[in-house]
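in:
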């Protein structure tokens, strides 16, 4: 897993080499430390770093370089799924683009499945094959990126895309925020411009539509 702020994750008392050795030792990868060090040196160029970074400490690296170390640390154990949690939100825009391009390249090279968590819809729409829209921890809509951008169904998704200028057409921009949560109703009911009494009294089930498009919305059932 890759976290938002590598400075909070990388141990400041360890060198970069020691940090990268930890997952290899923890998962019993390779036979000894000599082989592990050689493996690390071979993998460093994949994230745009070289051997000169190994004796350094995290505070001696830039934010982008620390994130590259965190990415490599996650990749060294050859995961089937890589979870990236807001990995570029703390970086400058120019560095964000570099890290996103790096993730895309690594995903293709290693044939990785990646769960990319972000509030930036422009980044998500560029990187993701499939998008899950969450509101207060609940799934409200899921579809391929192309389908979701072309045909957003849930009112919350519509508001998000309209606010981000990612939809060509008329969509409501109101309703973005936090209402009062309840397990007994739709989590979006209080702010939804299409909310009905049913929405405020019963949580909607997730419906499976054409092309694997899924949405949790009573208005969809009633054809609103």
């Amino acid at each position: 897993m890759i976290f938002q702020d590598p400075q909070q994750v990388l141990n400041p008392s360890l060198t970069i080499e020691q940090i990268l050795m930890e997952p290899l030792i923890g998962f019993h990868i390779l036979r000894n430390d000599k082989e592990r060090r050689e493996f690390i040196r071979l993998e460093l160029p994949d994230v745009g770093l070289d051997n000169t970074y190994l004796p350094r400490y995290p505070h001696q690296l830039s934010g982008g370089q620390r994130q590259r170390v965190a990415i490599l640390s996650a990749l060294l154990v050859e995961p089937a799924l890589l979870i990236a949690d807001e990995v570029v939100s703390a970086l400058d825009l120019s560095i964000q683009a570099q890290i996103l391009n790096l993730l895309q390249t690594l995903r293709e090279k290693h044939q990785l499945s990646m769960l990319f968590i972000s509030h930036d819809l422009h980044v998500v729409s560029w990187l993701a094959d499939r998008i899950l829209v969450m509101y207060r921890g609940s799934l409200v809509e899921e579809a391929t990126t192309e389908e979701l951008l072309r045909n957003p169904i849930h009112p919350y998704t519509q508001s998000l895309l309209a606010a981000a200028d990612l939809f060509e057409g008329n969509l409501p921009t109101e309703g973005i925020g936090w209402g009062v949560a309840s397990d007994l109703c739709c989590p979006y009911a209080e702010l939804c411009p299409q909310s009905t009494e049913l929405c405020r009294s019963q949580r909607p089930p997730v419906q499976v539509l054409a092309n694997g498009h899924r949405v949790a919305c009573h208005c969809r059932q009633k054809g609103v």
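note: The chain has two domains: 6-118, 129-222.
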